[in-house]
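Exercise: predict the fold of this chain.
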Amino acid sequence: MADKAGGRRTTGQDLGASSPDRIRNVVLVGPGGSGKTTLVETLLAAAGAIPRAGTITEGSTVCDFEDAERAHERSISLAIAPVVHRGTKINFVDTPGYADFVGEVRAGLRAADCALF
């Protein structure tokens, strides 16, 4: 039975998976300013994990939570943003796009089941 939110989960619901085979790690990789963090925000909002998508300029994104990231308006470290879709937990791994932080990208790729470029 669908809920009144059109099948969307309400904000703050449990994001646990029923078993390890129901977890997927999707890493987002690309150059700085290509929209990786904005895409994650949009996906989180569409899945109902957050009430509305934050923006880089407002400093209100889920993935850019460090003060330095908000001040410079760019990702510095990788961040995990989970959603549940049809019983599968999807961990979006948002990586920084600047070459200075390639170690963070490598760490995200090691954990990934697939990557979005």
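Check your answer against the key: The helical segments are 36-47, 67-72, 102-111.
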